[in-house]
């Protein structure tokens, strides 16, 4: 944003410098009074009063000294007209064209200084429109003048840019003039226009700037077109962190904020893997729209009831699973997420030793479908696991016939269940008193099948049950079965295998797109538009005013009225 105080102070400082320089020149010049006859000559040129004449003569003397040689675009003729005017004989017809021509050879800064001197002296050598615009340029509070005079709002490219910045973007620069402005305008001024909506992506401002500034402007307006390499060149950490997260890469822990707090991408990564411990911090770090989504997600976890958009966002499943702890049978037919939650719940119940409940949960996969309803697409891949758990529950209650029927169905869907089917058929032909328990000793210890940590777990349970002889005896029997399996060539193959495929139970590693902040433009990096920037735009605009410079004196009556 433009700093109005700094802009006003710069304009006041420029006017004070002009007055000080003018005072020094007058003190250094020989003192002489201007005759009434000479004053009348100047009055017909629109210069009224001895002080105004003195100010104009100082401008003419400077133009004489700064102009080119004799043959430079008629410079000798113009200088001669200025010399005669300084000596007291201003030409009524030739002076103004000479002044306008020599002003056109000056630098923008000198043009602005000379026009300020003429304006302060009350000399109106510009057209009425040009005079109004000059009043705006010379004002220390241009926005007040512009607010009162709509006629002064438009002009050349530089003047339009000046009025737009002075009015805080309320008056946009006409789009037809933008290409001219964008070639030279200070970058902070361009940032002002971007913030005010005066420059849009379709204006392609980067096409008119050098490589570094062009990249900066693209990042400000079209961040979606910026590559990772370009973001690195800009040192745009937020963009890079977002790109890493959206592409599924684990964020670098070095991306924390300067005050040591984790940034939104650290918090989002933790949430995406099911860590709900810092959701309050994530809530505070997210933009408004994503914050609402997160709160809706938490609200739905009370009953496991979420909108379809959340259920379809597989990146949210781990967090939803953490937040929702169903205490009754989950219907897997509701959605892919419910099917995944149901099979995980069934397996967790087995691990916890609640095999009967696990059997009821796995049986939910085998319920008939209501007319007109469709099964979730993932059901086909999960069903073998559900049948396998249901078969294990049947084994736990010594129902080998039901276990065999269920395992046969599972084996028809996946070859992974063939080993379990062979075991059940062997057990069916073996007298009950001659066979070992049907349950898996790993699962009896609360561990996954084949876990290498079973001995550690066994010792923990033994310490806990040292006063419970029945439980202690059961643990010893479990250990005996595991020791025997290790000595047996078949190893763990003698136990009912559960699960068949661990991948079914794993959380998806998708990105939780429902709560990912959208790609935002690069924040402004330029300082507020300063008084120096405004002076540079003023100077450019003053050069445009030379188009309104008169070639003939203004028509004045004897009362100096137009």
UniProtKB/TrEMBL annotation:
Region listing for Disordered, in residue ranges: 1-32, 516-535
Biased composition (Basic and acidic residues): 14-29
Bias-annotated ranges (Low complexity): 1-13
Protein's UniProt name: Uncharacterized protein
């Amino acid at each position: 944003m433009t700093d109005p105080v700094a802009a006003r102070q710069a304009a006041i400082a420029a006017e004070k410098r002009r007055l000080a320089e003018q005072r020094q020149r007058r003190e250094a010049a020989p003192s002489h009074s201007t005759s009434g006859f000479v004053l009348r000559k100047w009055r017909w040129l629109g210069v009224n009063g001895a002080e105004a004449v003195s100010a104009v003569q100082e401008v003419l003397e400077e133009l004489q000294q700064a102009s080119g040689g004799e043959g430079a675009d008629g410079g000798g003729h113009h200088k001669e007209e200025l010399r005669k005017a300084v000596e007291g004989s201003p030409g009524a017809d030739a002076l103004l064209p000479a002044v306008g021509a020599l002003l056109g050879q000056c630098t923008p800064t000198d043009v602005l200084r000379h026009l300020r001197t003429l304006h302060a002296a009350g000399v109106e050598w510009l057209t009425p429109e040009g005079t109004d615009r000059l009043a705006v340029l010379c004002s220390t509070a241009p926005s007040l003048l512009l607010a009162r005079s709509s006629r002064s709002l438009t002009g050349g490219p530089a003047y339009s840019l000046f009025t737009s910045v002075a009015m805080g973007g309320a008056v946009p620069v006409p789009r037809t003039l933008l290409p001219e402005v964008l070639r030279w305008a200070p970058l902070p001024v361009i940032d002002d226009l971007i913030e005010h909506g005066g420059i849009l992506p379709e204006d392609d401002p980067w096409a008119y700037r050098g490589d570094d500034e062009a990249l900066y402007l693209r990042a400000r307006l079209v961040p979606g077109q910026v590559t990772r390499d370009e973001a690195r060149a800009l040192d745009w950490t937020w963009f890079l962190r977002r790109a890493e997260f959206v592409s599924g890469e684990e964020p670098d822990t070095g991306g924390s904020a300067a005050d040591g707090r984790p940034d939104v991408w650290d918090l989002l990564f933790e949430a995406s893997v099911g860590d709900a411990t810092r959701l309050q911090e994530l809530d505070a770090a997210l933009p408004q729209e994503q914050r609402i989504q997160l709160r809706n997600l938490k609200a739905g976890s009370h009953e496991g009831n979420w909108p379809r958009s959340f259920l379809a966002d597989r990146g949210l499943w781990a967090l939803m699973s953490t937040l929702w702890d169903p205490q009754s049978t989950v219907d897997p037919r509701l959605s892919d997420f419910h099917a995944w939650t149901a099979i995980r719940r069934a397996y967790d119940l087995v691990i916890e030793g609640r095999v009967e409940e696990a059997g009821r949960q796995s049986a939910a996969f085998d319920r008939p479908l209501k007319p007109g309803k469709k099964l979730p697409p993932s059901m086909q891949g999960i069903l073998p696991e559900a049948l396998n758990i249901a078969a294990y529950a049947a084994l736990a209650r010594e129902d080998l016939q039901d276990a065999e029927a269920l395992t046969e169905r599972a084996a028809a869907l996946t070859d992974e269940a063939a080993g379990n089917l062979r075991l059940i058929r062997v057990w069916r032909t073996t007298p009950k008193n001659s066979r070992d328990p049907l349950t898996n000793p790993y699962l009896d210890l609360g561990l996954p099948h084949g876990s290498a940590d079973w001995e550690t777990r066994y010792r923990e349970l033994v310490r806990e049950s040292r006063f419970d002889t029945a439980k202690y005896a059961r643990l010893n029997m479990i250990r005996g079965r595991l020791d025997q399996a290790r000595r047996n060539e078949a190893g763990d193959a003698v136990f009912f295998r559960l699960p068949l495929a661990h991948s079914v139970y794993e959380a998806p590693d998708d990105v939780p797109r429902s709560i990912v902040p959208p790609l935002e433009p690069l924040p402004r990096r330029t300082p507020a538009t300063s008084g120096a920037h405004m002076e540079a735009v003023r100077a450019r605009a003053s050069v445009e005013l030379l188009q309104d410079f008169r070639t003939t004196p203004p028509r004045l009556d004897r009362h100096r009225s137009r």
